[in-house]
């Protein structure tokens, strides 16, 4: 017979309740507190430091060991041996595709790379100097207005086509955002290219010249996309799930994820890393800057992680890619890169960082790689959004398919005024 484990919670008034302990495939056990409402109480866990908000089979992180698996496959193996579209299939469907499925999936995604011509008009409503993430939030959300034929979230076929459309069109919109900002004409997708080549083509090609992608740089961008494809229940993914729990359509949900991703504590971190390096300006000022970090005047961007209390496994891969790209482009003596290495070395030896288990995260290196690829700083989070779209869509799809799905509705510990009566204006102090 199954040995059911329970946790017993006893209150100071003598009442007690038995709460089941649940085990996942990997990771810590969780206490199922759903029955707590019988006591008329909630748990208090701001920022969800001790809360599993859902059960999921997509991504696993062991923050202490510095491990990340997509559907059980270690991220290092996927970054080394797979490609982004294959990883997308894996995240969405749960298994690696066989040869026929792989070809079919690529064909389906490729069919949807163009956007409705009217969507291009949305861009004119934005100032040319608008932050590209502001444009992304608006234009990706606007996709909801174009696909009324497939917005029934309870229909698996509709969900599949929406997933394919998002996966195929978000890179096109991202590249259009860049072109709009730089004043160059939009480039239509070129379906003979791979997914990543096409993204680079739409960003960097012009109608005036032939564009030949550099395979080493394509591989580097492919790795960035693979490493950022999913990261379990982070802020933007939780936002997508919460928005989706109300039955909102996937385009609107992904747009809400893009908004959450924009913040410097989340997806905006690699942009913040580059800004920080530019502000420091020179290796000779690194030591002074570090003093300010330790005096808590500001944070060292690209260091620390809510879950990883060891080296971020994505950072290891990205560090390697960083060297490869800088070598390929003969940028090893780039002053920004030198400064980054100096910061990294100081931080890894410093008691302040060791004590708090603050290691470089993926964004510390990805910003340097993206910059070397010629992608401007304000586009970094957009590239992250392109990568994370598949994670958001897979997590959203998993949530909608869950037979126990309910609208997400956290409660609160109310600390405001107790009930009081309305005071007429003339009697107010
Ligand atoms: N620089 C200096 N001190 C830091 C840093 C940092 N980057 N991160 C955390 N600390 C200190 C913090 O001051 C606190 O010290 P004390 O215990 O003395 O008060 C301690 O470390 C714990 O900090 P926390 O804020 O409780 O940690 P958290 O888990 O809530 O925050 C974080 C995680 C990522 C928001 C934070 O480490 C941070 O702000 N890092 C810089 C921004 C960054 O690189 N973000 C990218 C995250 S990875 C991308 C992604 O997955 O989205």
What would you say this structure looks like, in words?
- The chain is mainly alpha-helical and 429 residues long.
- Helices cover 48% and strands 6% of the residues.
- The chain contains 17 helices and 6 strands.
- The strands form 2 sheets. It has a 3-stranded antiparallel β-sheet, with no helix packed on it. The chain has a 3-stranded antiparallel β-sheet with strand order 4-5-6.
- The mean pLDDT is 95.
- Bound molecules: carboxymethyl coenzyme *A.
- The site of carboxymethyl coenzyme *A has 20 residues, from loops.
Biggest beta sheet attributes: 3 strands, antiparallel
How much of the residues is beta strand, in percent? 5-15%
Assembly state (oligomeric): single chain
Order of the strands making up the biggest sheet: 1-2-3
Total helices: the number is: 17
Derived from helix and strand composition plus strand pairing, the structural class reads mainly alpha
The end-to-end distance, rounded to whole angstroms, is 69 Å
Order of helices and strands: EEEEEEHHHHHHHHHHHHHHHHH
Shape: globular
Overall average pLDDT: 95
Key descriptive features of the protein:
429 residues, mainly alpha, 3-stranded antiparallel sheet, 17 helices, 48% helix, 6% strand, globular, binds carboxymethyl coenzyme *A
Describe, in short, the structure shown:
The protein is mainly alpha-helical. It has 17 helices and 6 strands. Carboxymethyl coenzyme *A (CMC) binds next to loops.
